[in-house]
Write a structure and sequence with these properties.
The chain is an all-beta fold and about 600 residues long. It has one domain (about 75-595): TonB-dependent receptor, beta-barrel domain (Maltoporin, Chain A). About 0% of the residues lie in helices and about 65% in strands. The strands form five sheets. The chain has a 22-stranded antiparallel barrel. Strands 5-4-8-7 form a four-stranded mixed beta sheet, with no helix packed on it. Strands 1-6 form a two-stranded antiparallel ribbon. Strand 4 and strand 5 form a beta hairpin. The longest helix has 4 residues, at about 50-55. The two termini are about 20 Å apart.
Length: about 600
């Protein structure tokens, strides 16, 4: 199990180096599919999160919460296999020890082969993680998380095309235009230490420090389609090695409560420091390898040329913040905060960008009843422009930051029977990354994302659970520069006007422990570039599953089967900058979990 990368939230892509957090703190480098075997849950915190997290895109935060040591001894073993031949195994072990069981460990180990049903593809992966808790005293705890994971897999080619000649239809999702030797070999190590100290009955101190590091070697390719009618194409191979992405993070926070007249205050004071570093090597691109889009041939290995160092990048983001949740009786709350941030970045021997920014954050919540909350919020945040993309003349360059703004009005309510529903109107403005006349990624104006997000979910009855959500989006490029003036009024690339999802589970009353589930996921059409020269079509995928919990003798056993992309739909899962990436074929996976 793994978390896939580059998921959009409210039309905005989640940044793989800034928007993924371990236990609400450490920014991990999500350039490998992040394992979920050692995660308790994945939380999606939408909207600008600059108050706590500093420079992050306003799409939201993906927070991965690790499994903690259990109160009782726990040992589970899971084995799995999919229809393409990938096999895996996972051990989850938890024990408590010490005086009064004041210490605990949680160990997760996983390994397996990788097969996804695509030709010229194979690989393997592994995970080792340890979570340790220590109750030092009644008022102090210490938590340590260490995880190391790796993945070595073939990487299918990305499609590049001339949008003026038309958008190619997806070919058979089992085809791979690259060679099996074109691989993505990476490993990551994340370490996070946290201490919570109760200073008195109303005030507490949290101290955190962590380091995340990902290294990778990568040989990957793009397929340029020269003739859509015949499929005649040209393959280019790119070489990267000894890449190192590192995040070092620290946070200190004091939380407390006090009363001023009729107003109850929940106060937070904090400071954060984050340093990001990158280094690596590259070799000259090998281009002009004959290939065919419709009938790809096997590509023999092509040796890399002379390796040279890539431009290093360094980013520093430090900040102070204060936050006050003010309660005025049972119905009104005002949440106000401000962050003062100091930011600097440098790529190679280029100039150092330095910025200071004060970012406000205010929300008002009204609860007409105990089950209903109506809220409005306004947030400003300094947003890093991102990193210049692959294929650009300045690839790897850290772009300067700019201010983004978000306004939101919403309602949340608890319904009868345990259901919850919410709706939100949002308006996000953020800097626009575009391409100048020298094929360089640069900041070139602003884009806005206005929309409605709705969701409902929970237990309908003892047998039925349901989760449904939808986003209706009106995204537009609202300001431009001289070199991208023709983009004004266009829709930002890879942005769907509508997305829907529906997931349900049915627990069979006549067979205790047996459940059936299914999901339907829709993504609307999306522009292939900011000029809107073409669109990839909308697509719908279906997932099906079943689960049966029973006992074999005295051993609890859970049997599970899942079918992803059940209709075996061919579709473009990602686009932008005239690039296309294909979705995976239908995959059946079965697993068995034994609890000892």
């Amino acid at each position: 199990m793994a978390l896939k990368t580059r998921r959009p939230l409210r039309g905005l892509l989640v940044d793989n180096q800034r928007n993924y957090r371990l236990n609400g703190s450490l920014p991990i480098v999500n350039l490998i599919d992040t394992p979920l075997e050692n995660k308790e849950r994945v939380e999606v915190l939408k909207g600008a999160a600059s108050l706590y997290y500093g420079l992050v895109p306003p799409s939201g935060i993906v927070n991965l919460v690790t499994k903690r040591p259990a109160a009782q001894p726990l040992t589970t073993v899971t084995t799995s296999i999919n229809e393409h031949g990938a096999v895996g195994a996972h051990l989850d072990l938890s024990r408590r020890y010490g005086e009064g069981n004041d210490k605990g460990i949680r160990l997760n180990v996983a390994a397996g082969t990788q097969e996804v049903g695509v030709s010229s593809f194979e690989g393997n992966r592994g995970l080792f993680s340890l979570a340790h808790d220590w109750r030092i005293s009644r008022d102090a705890t210490l938590k340590l998380d260490v995880e190391h994971y790796r993945k070595n897999v073939s990487e299918p080619a990305t499609i590049v095309f001339n949008a003026a000649q038309g958008v190619p239809d997806p070919v058979d999702n089992r085809l791979n235009h690259a060679g099996e030797w074109q691989r993505y070999d990476a490993e990551a190590t994340n370490v996070l230490l946290r201490s919570d100290i109760n200073l008195n009955d109303t005030w507490a101190l949290t101290l955190e420090a962590g380091h995340a590091e990902t290294t990778r070697d990568r040989n990957f390719s793009t397929l340029a389609i020269n003739d859509l009618a015949t499929g005649a194409s040209s393959l280019s191979v790119f070489y990267q090695r000894n890449q190192r992405f590192a995040n070092t993070n620290a946070r200190a926070e004091v939380v407390g409560a006090l009363q001023t007249g009729a107003v109850a205050h929940e106060l937070t004071f904090g400071l954060t420091s984050n340093a990001r570093r990158f280094r690596g090597e590259g070799a000259p691109t090998v281009s002009g390898i004959a290939q065919n889009y419709y009938n790809p041939r096997v590509i023999d290995p092509v040796a890399a040329g002379t390796w040279t160092p890539a431009a290093r990048s360094r980013v520093s983001d430090r900040g102070l913040y204060v936050f006050d949740r003010m309660r005025l009786g049972d119905q009104w709350q005002v949440l106000a905060g401000v962050r003062r941030g100091d930011y600097s970045s440098q790529t190679g021997t280029g100039p150092t960008f330095k910025y200071d920014e004060t970012s406000p954050n205010v929300s008002v919540i009204y609860k007409p009843t105990s089950d209903v909350s109506i809220y409005g919020s306004y947030i400003e945040a300094l947003d890093e422009g991102g990193t210049a993309r692959f294929g650009r003349a300045n690839v790897g360059e850290v772009l300067p930051p700019a201010v983004n703004k978000q306004r939101e009005l919403g309602i949340k309510t608890r319904l009868a029977g345990g259901m919850q529903a919410q709706a939100a109107l949002f308006d996000i403005s953020r800097p626009l990354v575009t391409v100048d006349g020298s094929n360089r990624d640069v900041l070139g104006g602003e884009s806005t994302y206005r929309g409605l997000e709705v969701s409902i979910g929970g237990e309908i009855s003892r047998q039925w659970s349901l989760l449904a959500s939808a986003v209706f989006l009106d995204a537009e490029i609202t300001s431009v520069s001289a070199f991208n003036a023709t983009e004004l009024g266009k829709t930002p690339e890879n942005t769907a006007r509508s997305t829907f999802s529906l997931f349900g589970e049915y627990r069979v009353a006549s067979v205790p422990g047996w459940s059936l589930n299914g999901g339907v996921y829709f993504v609307g059409k999306r522009a292939v570039n900011n000029l809107n020269q073409g669109y990839v079509p909308a697509y719908t995928t279906v997932s099906l599953g079943t689960r049966y919990a029973t006992k074999w003798g005295s051993t609890p056993v859970t049997l599970q089967a899942n079918l992803d992309n059940a209709t075996d739909r061919d579709y473009w899962v990602g686009t932008g900058g005239n690039y296309l990436s294909a979705g995976l074929p239908r995959t059946l996976r079965v697993a068995a979990t034994f609890a000892f």
